[in-house]
Structure formats: C-alpha cells, structure tokens
Amino acid sequence: MASNLHVKKGDKVEIISGKDKKKTGKVLVAYPKTGKVLVEGVNLIKKHTKGTQKNPQGGIIEKEAAFDASNVLLYCPACKRGVRYGQKIDGDKKTRVCKKCGKELE
Description:
The protein is mainly beta. The chain has a domain at 12-75: SH3 type barrels, CATH 2.30.30.30. It has no helices and eleven strands. The strands form three sheets. It has a six-stranded antiparallel sheet, with no helix packed on it. Strands 9-10-11 form a three-stranded antiparallel sheet, with no helix packed on it. It has a two-stranded antiparallel sheet with strand order 4-5.
C-alpha cells in the first residue's frame, strides 16, 4: 500500500466524498501502511461495549472510524476549502504551499 500520505497528524482537512462530504476536521491519526486517516468529529460510529472494571455499566460509545486518505484534501484557510498543494524549498527546509492562492499551509 502507500508508504507515505499527503496529510499528517494535526493537519486540518476537508472531506471530499462520502456521507460526511464538505465537513472539516483535524487529523487525529494517520495510518500510512493502510492508507487511512482518523479525522476528529467525522465518520462517527456507535460501538456496543460490555461492562468492565473501568466502565461497569457498559453501553454504547460513539467514536470516530478511519477512512481512506484519498477522500480528504488539505484545508487552506485563505481559500476556505480543501485544496491540492505543492512544495516550496527554501535551502534545506520544505514547506507546503496552496496551489490556488500560493500561501503557505501549516
């Protein structure tokens, strides 16, 4: 599978396909081996849990599920949407730059 992804942990991204289309969120975890990402507040599932010592009641927990990294684009605050990006090299430092407006992306 993919050895590296176009997004990394902490990036703000926009979802471009699926039931959560047009939503934005922060990447919590990136899984490069499987090509998946976990985005905060997006693709929520309900998990039924059995009672444990920590949680004796058990019940239904709502949590994020991973989905394919190809369904997200890096979010540009200047353009206010998901965009493709290029790289600008200054000496030995690489920075990601928005292809639409040319501004640096954090």
